[in-house]
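Our example copied in:
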Amino acid sequence: MITLKSIKPGSTIRIVSPAGKIEEKHVMPAVKWLEEQGYTVKLGEHVFAQHYQFAGTDEQRAADVQEALDDADCDAIICSRGGYGTVRIIEQLDFTQFLEKPKWLVGFSDITILHSRLHNLDVPTIHGVMPRFFFDEEGAPREDLTSMMKLIKGEGISYDVAATEFDRPGTAAGQLVGGNLSIVNSLHGTKYDIDTAGKILFLEDIDEFLYHTDRMMHQLKLSGKLDHLAGLILGDFTDMKDNESPFGQTVHEIIKKAVKDKDYPVCFGFPGGHDKKNLALAFGMDWEMEVAEEGTKLRLV
């Protein structure tokens, strides 16, 4: 993996909207805060554009992301939100100049596509909070934000995760990969698919039917994605839905069954994803995990 430059006051951060549309009121407080910390912030020309559900046309969104990728003075790119749309522009993006001056990319949900693309280019990324969720109801920085800033500034970080009845004890070390389950699943068979062998896989999702989650876990299993993991970390599965005729299993029961014949450690309930807390994770970098009866310890190596 390429070693990225840690940002510091004076560094330039670009904010782009690769997917869904977003209003200024959800971004500008984050811009103000970052500038108060000493960073230079540049907004993509079409960050607040609207084209149906998207932040501008495919061409506009791709142009903003490309400009950020190519900017040699930029040290980090933060996506304004997820939603849907990154897959529509991924083929238009050229990473040639980016690889001459690689930089951090921050986001989650639909941004999983960019995480996967950059992982296959040996560039680490940050699965972390986006501007709309930087602050709590009182306007104070959330732990989501402070954890993301620690990673982007090159500081060490570790987490203690409460135990659940579904955890499987054990220790593991390896590169961390993954993201949104639906997106990871959708990339199977494409050139943006990721190799999970020997790695710690992180998954989260939102607003999915239980039967669909079961189908996605079976696809990961049948494709071999779950066979040779070093470990598995499950984040939040938020606002899950059931049919009128119940599926009969919770999302945790579905996942536990999918990996019941494996022997690697499994941590359920990491506070990451679409729920109230979204602690930052550095994808492509090495982590250690220890799952025990009293809980899970996760540490960036």
In short: Residues 12-152 form a domain with the Rossmann fold fold (CATH 3.40.50.10740). The longest helix spans residues 58-70. The longest strand covers residues 170-180. The two ends are 14 Å apart (CA to CA).
